[in-house]
Design the sequence.
């Protein structure tokens, strides 16, 4: 690949930096009602951006536009930041696993060979998120692997389930568990001893990310590996129904269920993880299983006391970190992403400052850089992570927006950076709690932060891009939107209350350009209705005064 950036034929280089500001989960939903948290928030700055002729549009952020299998798939931060940073469409984990299952290559690779060594005399464990959300995992892929393993001779299978309620409606974990039990019953019928062994809610058990709170992984380790949890049950459906505390003063949502262990008639756990067992993590997405992968794979490990470290035959559904080569063994090779905007910046000696809080830090660095950890060139890149709170985010909807804003302003003013890249986590992280008011509150604050940043961009005669990676805060009620449910636009009402929507939406996202350093005649092209997140990187180089690298999807700037 030719990495040399050539000057843009018309757009001169700016005096000041380029600000790239990602408002995570800030969709531009066509339905603007009282369940659209951005609509009810006070957002004068982002509203004003829409009014500038030729400098605002929406771009697609879901489905095939970001490399997902179908246009029914909502976008997410992983695929969104991959597309934003790489400027290319990459077949994503979900698609690659689908392909490997339909071609059966998944059952022939090295990873499968490794786990199949345990089929005869040991237990095969599956651990992962049990839902059809399609963000981290999908039940149909798990079911195909379970059936494949039993057909190929696995004698004993145990499944450790993490309940979702975040990428799918709260309460749906019961349905997914029943579906899994059906599949396991079929396997039992064919002579395989197959059971659910442990579980818990994804935000409480196992699926921490970016080392925000290792206790989450510790709780998972104790339940899945050691068979220890504060609650034991004879079956998973009862566990979930009981732990949800429905009808009580403080019901618990699927995301936050306590860890539980399933025990047999003898009250002993039915499926601890032992030496020589095989373990498969069935999530395809990396961020929330990297920590568990480390706990399973690394002999040297200090994040928490594992008490016992079984020597397992461990494979990820994918390799979750290509640089760390973690895990060593995997069932499907991950997407190869090279020639990202970050790599081009570094090879052309352009400097970058990146800042977010823990919850989204890896998104604007690792995912943005094509699933690459670390720096391309440390002398040119500064990455700042502000530690996130470890409470449910609707309790402190401000999160770390203020701190991120200040860090961004300082970096812009320093004059040291060609690009300053910021991610505000709030609209997404608070949106995932389903709390409409808290989400509106954080959108108001984020809008204020954007205003302050844009003022500094002007002061520095810089340029800016304000955009998002996918929708979330723009729809907080289930089935309130035509774009989520084509049949009805009305919110679902249960027991007199609107049922909240915790997941991302299918809405496109805003894309705004500007700044005092941007010549007046630089405008966005008309048309390009198909443009999506993958068109941002080329646009970013043009805004910096360079011709866009030719392998990237086309820029949205008028020629
Ligand atoms: C999560 O992991 O929090 C959700 O499943 C997806 O959210 P994200 O794609 O915005 O990180
Ligand atoms: Co999200």
Sequence:
């Amino acid at each position: 690949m030719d990495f040399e950036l050539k000057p843009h034929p018309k757009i001169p280089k700016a005096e000041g930096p380029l600000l790239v500001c990602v408002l995570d989960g800030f969709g531009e939903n066509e339905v603007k009602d009282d369940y659209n948290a951005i609509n009810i928030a006070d957002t004068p700055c982002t509203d004003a951006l829409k009014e500038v002729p030729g400098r605002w549009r929406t771009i697609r952020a879901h489905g095939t536009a970001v490399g997902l299998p179908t246009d029914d798939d909502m976008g997410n931060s992983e695929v969104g930041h991959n597309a934003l940073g790489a400027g290319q469409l990459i077949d994503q984990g979900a698609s690659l696993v689908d392909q490997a299952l339909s071609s059966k290559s998944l059952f022939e690779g090295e990873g499968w060979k490794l786990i199949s060594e345990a089929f005869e005399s040991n237990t095969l464990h599956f651990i992962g998120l049990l839902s059809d959300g399609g963000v981290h995992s999908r039940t149909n892929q798990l079911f195909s692997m379970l059936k494949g393993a039993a057909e190929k001779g696995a004698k004993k299978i145990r499944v450790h389930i993490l309940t979702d309620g975040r990428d799918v409606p709260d309460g749906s974990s019961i349905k997914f568990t029943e579906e899994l039990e059906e599949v396991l019953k079929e396997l039992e019928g064919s002579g395989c001893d197959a059971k659910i062994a442990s579980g818990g809610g994804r935000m409480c058990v196992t699926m921490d990310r970016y080392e925000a709170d290792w206790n989450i992984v510790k709780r998972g380790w104790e339940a899945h590996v050691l068979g220890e949890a504060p609650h034991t049950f004879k079956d998973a459906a009862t566990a979930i129904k009981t732990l949800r505390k429905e009808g009580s003063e403080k019901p618990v949502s699927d995301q936050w269920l306590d860890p539980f262990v399933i025990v047999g008639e003898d009250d002993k756990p039915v499926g601890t993880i032992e030496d020589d067992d095989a373990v498969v993590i069935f999530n395809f997405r990396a961020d929330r299983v990297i920590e568990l992968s480390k706990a399973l794979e690394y002999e040297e490990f200090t994040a928490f006391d594992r008490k016992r470290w079984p020597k397992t035959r461990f494979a990820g559904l994918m390799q979750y970190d290509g640089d760390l080569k973690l895990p060593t063994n995997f069932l499907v090779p991950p997407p190869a992403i090279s020639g990202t905007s970050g790599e081009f910046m570094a090879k052309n000696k352009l400097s970058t400052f990146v800042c977010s809080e823990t919850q989204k830090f890896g998104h604007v660095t690792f995912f943005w850089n094509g699933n690459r950890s670390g720096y391309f060139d440390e002398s040119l890149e500064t990455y700042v992570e502000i530690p996130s709170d470890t409470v449910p985010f609707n309790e402190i909807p401000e999160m770390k927006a203020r701190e991120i804003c200040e860090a961004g302003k300082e970096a812009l003013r320093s004059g040291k950076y060609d690009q300053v890249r910021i991610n505000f986590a709030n609209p997404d992280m608070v949106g995932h709690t389903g709390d409409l008011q808290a989400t509106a509150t954080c959108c108001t604050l984020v809008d204020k932060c954007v205003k302050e940043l844009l003022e500094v961009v002007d002061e520095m005669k810089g340029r800016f891009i304000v955009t998002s990676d996918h929708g979330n805060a723009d729809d907080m009620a289930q089935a309130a939107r035509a774009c989520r449910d084509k049949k009805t636009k009305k919110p679902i009402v249960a027991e007199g209350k609107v049922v909240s929507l915790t997941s991302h939406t299918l809405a496109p996202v805003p894309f705004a350009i500007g700044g005092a350093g941007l010549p007046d005649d630089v405008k966005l092209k008309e048309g390009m209705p198909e443009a999506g997140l993958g068109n941002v990187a080329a646009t970013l180089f043009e805004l910096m005064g360079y011709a866009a690298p030719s392998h990237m999807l086309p820029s949205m700037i008028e020629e």
Remarks:
- DSSP finds 16 helices and 17 strands in the chain.
- The chain has two domains: 18-90+338-473+503-543, 94-332.
- The domain at 18-90+338-473+503-543 is CATH 3.40.720.10 (Alkaline Phosphatase, subunit A).
